[in-house]
Write a structure and sequence with these properties.
By secondary structure, this protein is an alpha+beta fold. The protein has helices at 2-5, 25-49, 56-79, 130-141; strands at residues 17-22, 81-85, 88-90, 96-98, 102-108, 111-116, 121-124. The chain is built from four helices and seven strands. Helix 2 runs antiparallel to helix 3.
């Protein structure tokens, strides 16, 4: 399983890892807290819309669902690592994105979305500072080596 969570691509000639990006525990908890709040509101809204007199149970159900899911997935999500090299962005499961193939970088909450020129989308999740992650990738794409 660890091979699925970290880069497995072989480094090319002259390629070196400059920086690694891994999920942050507090960002994971903060993101899932917002998801839980949304799930609670949606659950209550659905029960209210159908006329259920126990609307509060929607909040309990939404919270429970997100807490169980977040607890179950936390160790795997926080073990995922992306490596930024002087030539590519290497991700879990053998993902390898050449700097020249990156079309855009987007911030989605605590995630950085990497969009390739052929339309593939990848997420670097639960970053403490997604802007800093994007800046590091852009710096290396523009030729910096640190």
């Amino acid at each position: 399983m660890p091979d699925l969570l970290t880069p497995t691509a072989e480094l090319l000639d002259g390629e070196t890892v400059l920086e690694s990006f891994q999920g942050d525990r507090s960002s994971y908890i903060r993101t899932n807290t917002w998801i839980a709040a949304g799930a609670m509101a949606v659950g209550m809204g659905i029960l209210w819309a159908v006329g259920n007199p126990y609307v509060w149970t929607g909040a309990v159900g939404g919270l429970a669902a997100v807490v169980v899911r977040a607890g179950y997935l936390m160790s795997d999500e926080l073990a995922v690592r992306w490596d930024l090299t002087n030539q590519r962005l290497l991700g879990p499961g053998g993902r390898a994105i050449s700097h020249t193939n990156i079309a855009e970088l987007n911030k989605l909450g605590s995630f950085v979305q990497v969009v390739t020129k052929n339309g593939d989308k990848h997420l670097i999740k639960y970053q403490t500072d997604p802007q800093a992650t994007m800046a590091a990738i852009e710096r290396v794409m523009n030729g910096a080596t640190t």
